[in-house]
Amino acid sequence: MNCLPFEERIALYVDGALDRHEVRLVEEHLRSCSACAEFADGLEYDRIGLRTPPPESSEVDYGALRVEIRRAIVRERRTKRLIPALLIAASILIAVGIAAMRMVSGRIPVPQSQIAQVKVGQAVPPATLSKSGADPLVRGRRPRRPDGISPSIDSMGDSGSGGTRADQGVRPTMESVPTADPALEAALREFIAAEEAVPDSLSPVPPIEIRIVTGDPNVILILLQETSGVSNE
Amino acid sequence: VADVAVADTVVRMDEHAERETSEAQLLSRAKRGDLDAFEQIVVLHERRIFGLALRLTGSVEDAKDAMQETFIRMHRKLAQVDAGRALGPWLYTVTVNVCRDLGRVRQRSRLIPMDEWAARAADPAANPEGLCSGRERESHLRAGLRTLPEKERAALLLREMEGLSTDEVARILGSSPATVRSQISMARVKLRRFFARHRGEIA
To answer: Is the pLDDT of residue A26 over 60?
Structure first.
């Protein structure tokens, strides 16, 4: 009798995975087939072997293994503690490296808050003007990059002492001159009034216009300077 | 007899509950960074994990490596271990994965090699009396286990060595209970056929 297909069912029977009806069928078969009965006995024998712990498991030096495990864990903990410090150090190095590279290539971006927004037809607010004497930008000496991106304006935010005149065909207006200093404001008003009184044709020499294109495409700095190089209040 | 059996069961349940409680306490201490508590957890499970790894990998050295790696991984993932549940099944899952990884690394998880002993045992001259010590039987068993596909071997061992239910084995192996049931029965049949081919070598 070929009982090979029956073997898996016997294995399921040994495993207790058959329903009552199938159990009855297998048991009937085992009573009548000595080969399958022997097979089932073999399966039970194998179960005993599998449930017996391997002899080596009582011979291993678990203490030594535990020491190794502990060492590995301590190593991991140390590494874990070091990671944040290493990350901070790495980011500082990267930041310093990037800043150094930009300084070398003259590409330090000007923060938006420091970019003077000057439009044609509007006077330059004194509070945002550079010191013309100190900043080579105003004098037009600093070389412009081919891409038009402006270098930084170090003295942005300084008030008062320097400035340029917006005088390229469009005159400044009184409303567009915000200032906190009353004396300066009075002087500026006087200057603008004088400018308004002079016809365009009488203006001595056309001023030099310096356009500075910033990182923001919507912001262009236009600095106007008299050719004599004397800056106005 | 019935009273003795009931009393025995109650004692065993108490022991089990006590162990679970102590394991949960150790686990919460280990989670707080107590390495001694972690080591006590290792002591509780090391023999079972080593035995399982030994039969999964078939080699004492691999089993040692697997055991160490299992507990190191456990320490790494301590935060994910649920202190309210028994640690055993979780550790078995890790052990099976570690042994599978080891097998892949050493490219022998699917080989069907005859152990040295099995090769010797096949030769009657090497074992003239047909006697077999526990160690030889174990060696033969491992040779048989190594003929099984990885998942069948793991399913059978988890069922028989650790006494897990079909559902628990299925959860550990990421399979369905029906698949695991079939894998276990196929593994039994294949193992029995292997032993039948080497009949006489096992006393």
So the answer is: yes
- Residue B68 to residue A14, Cβ atoms within 8 A: no
A141 pLDDT tier (thresholds 50, 70, 90): very low
Backbone angles phi, psi at B15, to 5 degrees: -60, -45
- For residue B186, the chain A residues in CB contact (below 8 A) are 8, 11
Could A72 and B72 be called an inter-chain contact, meaning their C-beta atoms sit closer than 8 Å?
Answer: yes
Cross-chain Cβ contact A47/B71 below 8 Å = no
CA A59 centroid distance within chain: 56
Give the type of residue at A63. Answer: G
Per-residue pLDDT at B154:
95
pLDDT of residue B12: 58
What ipTM was assigned to the predicted interfaces of this complex?
0.76
Q: A149 phi and psi, to 5 degrees?
A: -80, 130
- Give the start-end residues of each E strand in chain B: none
CB B142 within 8 A of CB B62: no
This prediction's pTM: 0.59
The Cα A25–Cα A23 span in angstroms is 5
Whether residues A73 and B159 touch (CB distance < 8 A) is answered with: no
Phi/psi region, residue A199 (left: phi>0; alpha: psi -120 to 50; beta: rest), is beta
- C-alpha A112, offset from chain centre: 18
How many angstroms away from the CA of A7 is the closest CA of chain B?
A: 7
C-alpha to C-alpha distance for B142 and B45, rounded to whole angstroms: 21
Mean pLDDT of chain B: 81
